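WARN retry 2 of 3 for item q-0093 after timeout on previous attempt; input resubmitted unchanged.
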Amino acid sequence: MGNIKEVPYDKYIFEVENQLKSEGLFLSSKGEKANTMVIGWGGITIFWGKPIFLVPVRKSRYTHGLIEKSGEFTVSIPLNRDLKKALAFCGSRSGRDFDKFKECNLTPIPGIKVNAPIIGECPLHYECKVVYKQDMIPANLDAQLIQKWYPSPDYHTFYFGEIVACYMTE
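OK item q-0093 returned
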């Protein structure tokens, strides 16, 4: 994997936030096979005295089942690498139908502390173990948000992943 340099989880928090809002982040997990998808919501926060990567995954997504079974995921951040095409593809196709790693020439590299891959082409990685999950309760959500974001009732599960490793790769 080349050089691995541990970094504090919050060192690149603004870059992560900007990438999340602009093009999205790679969220990867592994079951029978590995898969990656793109998230545009979520973020890094603190719960229970731990650094947490909060990731929302719709129940219809292939990755949802992988995280449900494994309880683990990684988030890989392109930072200044141009992975727009891969992000667009991985954000619009299902891992049920495509091997996204092969289709986008992305290199799945085994995580260090979790059994989920990181994306070799990205320089920044978070490895996470789910410490809490919560399915959305539609009755608790503002009706205008339901109208805008959930025209078909495909709600998210929020996964609170304790960040167990954060590092840069070359």
